[in-house]
Amino acid sequence: MDSYTKVTTKWYGSRIMDSIKWILFWFIMFIVSFIVLWTNEWTVDLSTIAKNSTVVDSVKIDSATEWKFVAVTWEINSEEVLWDNLYLKAGKYISISRTVEMYSWEEETKTETEKNVGWSETTTTTYTYNTVWTESPDDSSSFDTSSGHFNPGKSLQSVTDTVGNSNIWAYNIDTPSIKLPGMKSITLTKDIVVLENNSTWSTSLVSGYLYKWEGTFSNPKVWDIRISYSVLNNGTNVTAMWTQTWDKITSFIDEDGNKIYRVFNWTKAAALSTLKNEYLFKLWAFRALWFILMWFGLSLLLWPISVLLDVLPMLWGLSRWIIWIITFIISAILSIITILISIIFHNIFALIIAVAVVWFFWYRFVKQKMDNKEKPNEEIKVKQNNTLEKSEEVKEEWKEIKEVKEEWKVEDKKNTTSVGFDIE
After folding, report:
1. Contact, 190 vs 180, CB < 8 A?
2. Which end of the chain, C or N, has fewer beta carbons within 10 A?
3. Mean pLDDT to the nearest integer, 42-62
4. Per-residue pLDDT at 355
5. Sequence-ordered list of residues with C-beta below 8 angstroms from that of 54, at least 6 positions apart, any chain
């Protein structure tokens, strides 16, 4: 194991520019996360389609199920033999997978950052180099210190192969065209592998692996390789799903374009369970991945604010944590809302339920509250109208009283005039 340390200082102006130049990229990522979260809910659960397949007899072909989506359970067999043309001897396999790992250099990076007076930033990066067995060796030209840590290309590649033709009793299968179930690793012995030795290489079996090396088991060298095999054995119990066309088979494709043309381990129930688990894994993996990208995108959009706040010593580092926490909460809320709305719009039953719930709450709380507000207003209006009516009646009464008084005055005047005349 080797370690190297590199110390760099970045001035405040450079830090601000670095935080700004990625804003457009992370803004696009933030927007794209909404689109992917929305469309991810369109993922089809193939198990709901597969459960409608018709179970047919594997021994004889029934013309009644021709051109129908069927499921057949039996052993998968082939008259062919299969090997990898190198170390694994020919055997009765439906498919084989050779995994090749190389002993190679791997770079690990550890970074520590410290704020300085004057708002600059010092970064200490430690590069550690270890040797590991890996199927995909790193490109050593990208290492910070490539000298002494060179990874050559693999001398042998991983490969997967299948027999050309197989059958599940009466049904013939073009094996390379159909998706097969997962293979199981096999323990390598001298009976099933070919060992070779020459002046440069030696091969040996150790702990279930076939090693091809210049070094030894206790002291391997970079470029040494180790090989393991996985196989699908002839005679494995499987369930296959497809469209039946007499004794041949084709892909089943429904009206929405969803395709099933596959062989599963064990029974139809196990096949449905496999499809269900694959659906849930993909659904939640994409939800988690794009929530994280939304969170990162939103956080790094606000990163320039954090850099600007570093001018205050009391906020060194604290502003970053505040931004991470706030953006995590915001991203979680936005992701949940996006997912729920997408589920509702892509499921007619969910949409009906959502509309019913909204209508219930609107009617139960909003409308009744509005009605309760309007009811007192109506009562007030009625009282006001009654008051107005009464006031009008009072006015009329006063008017009548005034008219009567006027009549009395006229009569009094007449009487007064009449009495005076008689005296004279």
Report:
1. no
2. C
3. 88
4. 75
5. 65, 68, 69, 70, 71
